[in-house]
Design brief:
The protein has four helices and four strands. The chain is α/β, with parallel strands linked by helices. Helix 1 packs parallel to helix 3.
Length: 100
């Protein structure tokens, strides 16, 4: 994961129970080099919470680390995800790396 330290704005997509995003957030928060991480899932929050036993707990931990969590994100069409636009005053957010 060393190459991530050179990145400032990261987006994770397709992280079902958000365990990968949480692990990444915890590791990178220690470095203080990553400016932002946004964690997303294709499923709605309700589906994540009902399908994944650790989903709600991982989401709560991410939010405690000030990591935005966005649901209903189609990674094949990020520009259509309005929630990503609202992160930066209705401008499309730019990410240095998208991690699937």
């Amino acid at each position: 994961y060393r190459w991530l330290y050179a990145k400032k704005h990261l987006l994770t997509v397709g992280d079902g129970d958000f365990s990968f995003s949480l692990c990444l957030a915890e590791c990178l928060s220690k470095s203080h080099k990553v400016k932002s991480l946004v964690a997303t899932s294709y499923e709605s929050e309700e589906v994540v919470n009902s399908v994944y036993c650790m989903g709600s707990e991982n989401i709560a931990k991410l939010k405690a680390l000030d990591v935005p969590v966005i649901h209903n994100v189609d990674a094949t069409n990020l520009l259509s995800t309005s929630s990503l636009h609202t992160l930066h005053n209705n401008e499309v957010s730019l990410f240095d790396a998208v991690i699937w």
